[in-house]
Amino acid sequence: MFNINQVSKLAMASHLSLGRSLMTPQIRYNFVNIKDYMYKDQKKKLENFDNYNKQYTGTVEQIVKKRQQQHTYLEIEQEKKKDLDIFIEAYSDTVIEFKLYGEHFDYKTQTIDAILNYYQVSYTRMFNPLYHERIRAQFGDQIKECKFPLLRINISLEPAKFLELEQMESWLIDQGFIILPKHRTHSAWATQGTEFAQKQMHEALNRLFWSPALTFQLYWKSHSKSYTEQSKRALVLRVARIQFVQIVTNLWKNLRSITKDIEAFKKTKQDVLKLVNDWKEMLEENDYHGGINPDEADFAMYGVIMAKYNSQSFQRFIQNEWPASVRRWLIRMQQNCQYEKRDLYN
User: Fold this and answer.
1) DSSP strands (E only) in 211-337
2) CA–CA separation, 330 vs 302, rounded Å?
3) Assuming Cys at both sites, which of 14, 185, 252, 342 could form a disulfide with 122, CB separation 3.0 to 4.6 Å?
4) Any idea where the domains of the chain sit in the sequence?
5) 62 Cβ partners below 8 Å, 6+ apart?
């Protein structure tokens, strides 16, 4: 084989000494072989370099692809672990939430509200009529036949459950949210007091509130913050519209009742005061109708009174004309049944 430098020297010497026209066949043959060798050698180098680049590029792509696959796998595993942690946490740290849907002018709502507060059950008041519209729309089929008040029970990862008034106390006692329900005496004395409150006193106060002024005060909630969680104008206007319909409807109904029984309406105030004095006698010298602790009758009477308590005129009537012992009883019940939004159960 020829060396390139030797070929160059030979070509130069041949050119200088002999000239292109005097080149022998042997020299021409040598030049052809040299040229062919140089071409093949260069081609081989290019092929080797190209193969090296292809091999190197393939190796890099494989590494990048493998790393991407590993990264994707790790992401999927991390997401699975996160979902598993959430699932385990939800079951190991179950949260229970109670919401009481009712109406502030309903004595049944006020009665169960007082019992929940007396036993310090953690719950949220939902007395805003807008909330009633929402749950009717959201759980229409589930609560279609239900009447307020309703206790909504939210438990982690479980569908919402609703209890009516007749089921609330028993369920809360059975589940341990009300411990030692001392008010449930089931005595004839408590039954008599409960009937007295929910029938006689309730009917007398309803007649008293035939008055247009008292009707307006009862249904109109002037302080919107206690009635709505948000103070947006749209919400306040919607609530005001609902209240206006309630006021007009009940005003019309009450005016018709007055015209039908004007004599009963005139003496309603005296009838209420007589019933209040009867309640005073039932209390005797005790703090409550039940003695040391309130019984079913205490909560029943308290619910009937608080259902009308939104009226400022009614509050003045209590303060100015009711016996002192009854007022003290009412203050004690208010203190023991004061609403406080507490933490959720977990």
Assistant:
1) none
2) 7
3) 342
4) 4-91, 96-336
5) none
- For residue 150, give Cα distances in angstroms to 26, 39, 63, 142: 116, 96, 63, 12
Window from 123-137, 195-209, 316-330 with minimum mean pLDDT = 123-137
Q: Where are the beta strands (DSSP E) in the chain?
A: 96-101, 124-126, 150-155, 161-164
The string of DSSP codes covering 96-113 is EEEEEE--TT-HHHHHHH
- In words, the CATH class of domain 96-336 is mainly alpha
pLDDT tens digit string along 167-222?
999 999 999 999 999 999 999 999 999 999 999 999 999 999 999 888 888 877 64
Q: Cα dist. 26→14, 31, 33 in Å?
A: 12, 9, 11
What value, to the nearest 5°, has the Cα angle with vertex 87 and ends 84 and 93?
A: 130
Determine the Cα–Cα distance for residues 76 and 72; give it in Å rounded to an integer: 6
Residue 307 burial (10 A CB sphere; 0-12, 13-18, 19+): buried
Vertex 27: Cα angle to 25 and 28 (nearest 5): 65
User: Over the stretch 234-243, which tens digit does the pLDDT of each residue have?
Assistant: 455 566 667 6
